[in-house]
Design goal:
This protein has two helices and eleven strands; from the N terminus they run H-H-E-E-E-E-E-E-E-E-E-E-E. By secondary structure, it is mainly β. A hairpin with a 2-residue loop joins strand 8 and strand 9.
């Protein structure tokens, strides 16, 4: 085999080892964090206000159950979380974010002062559960609504 032929074969082998999915798809979570406040009751006299993007830090923990947090009374605020913090991500001014994660199940939180906030639960009392699948970005809209009335 000539030197050029060997180089061509090597280049083809390297290119064949890459899949289009490796370039196009990343696993993780993307979406927006919104702040919702005030009267949110539906009314024919008042159209619903558009959600307001929130610049904040989003905390991504291993899937967290209610039994794994120190709850602040009976609220959706938590003093402590005993599962592992996986990543934090800063949202943009409009509340948008994107974070790469390995496939798995996670819980999402934001903070108000020293307390964590999250108010979505599944049937097993897991707090804001989000599942990330291999090669997919999971879309989420996290609503920070501790100042809202429904």
């Amino acid at each position: 085999m000539t030197r050029i032929s060997a180089l061509l074969v090597l280049c083809l082998l390297v290119l064949a080892s890459f899949t289009p999915a490796a370039f196009c798809h990343r696993s993780g979570i993307s979406g927006h964090v919104y702040f919702v406040s005030g009267n949110q009751m539906p009314s024919p006299d008042r159209p619903a206000a558009a959600p307001q993007g929130l610049k904040t830090t989003l905390y991504v923990y291993e899937l967290t159950n209610m039994s794994q947090v120190g709850r602040d009374g009976v609220s959706a605020f938590y003093k402590s979380i005993s599962t592992k913090l996986v990543k934090t991500v800063e949202t943009n001014d409009d509340g948008s974010f994107k974070v790469k994660l390995k496939p798995g199940k996670y819980s999402l939180f934001v903070k108000k002062g020293d307390l964590f906030f999250s108010n979505i639960f599944d049937g097993e009392n897991n707090i804001y559960p989000v599942e990330v699948e291999k090669g997919k970005m999971t879309e989420e809209e996290f609503k920070v609504n501790y100042g809202a009335a429904y």
